[in-house]
Amino acid sequence: MKKIKIYLETSAISNLYQLNKPKEMADMKALWELLKQGEYNVVISQTVIKELSDTKDVKKRELLFDYLDQIDLDTAEISEEMLKVAQLVIQQGILTENNYNDCEHIAYALITNCDCIVSYNFRHLVKIRTITGVQKLANLHGYGIINIVGADYLL
To answer: What is the domain-level CATH number for residue 135?
Structure first.
């Protein structure tokens, strides 16, 4: 049986050490144990690496990169296709230019054929308008079925 392929968006990884969000942190740590066991195929991107690198709290930044070293993952590189799809996200009114990194996350997940994006970005990504918009874009342009979920969805 084919493993589910997930794209880990920065907010999900960040919740591995988010003391003010104990439920989200517990869910991400539980998911991380499954990832360490190889339960899912995992993709991150250059955008994730950049956003994590920009974390101002040095202890948290180092801890998050240590977590990434614990699992097998693929890192998607910037490409013309990714840039094109990120622009489609904007052109179709799913997100705006102000949320360009989120557009990139969606684009990376689509072009790497992920089954879902794991995110805790409830302001822009994990909301019905974005989810349905991304699903329509994926269908219209020949990408696979994709969902946007929190970690608890995969436990």
So the answer is: 3.40.50.1010
What's the pTM?
0.96
Which H helix or E strand runs over 59? helix 58-69
The partner residues of 6 in beta bridges, in order of sequence, read 42, 116
> Cα(137)–Cα(88) distance, rounded to whole angstroms?
8
CA 30 vs CA 22, 151, 153: distances in Å: 12, 8, 11
Residue by residue, pLDDT tens for the chain (155 residues) are 789 999 999 999 999 999 999 999 999 999 999 999 999 999 999 999 999 999 999 999 999 999 999 999 999 999 999 999 999 999 999 999 999 999 999 999 999 999 999 999 988 999 999 999 999 999 999 999 999 999 999 99
Counted domains in the chain: 1
- From the CB of residue 135, how many other CB atoms can be counted at a distance below 10 Å? 15
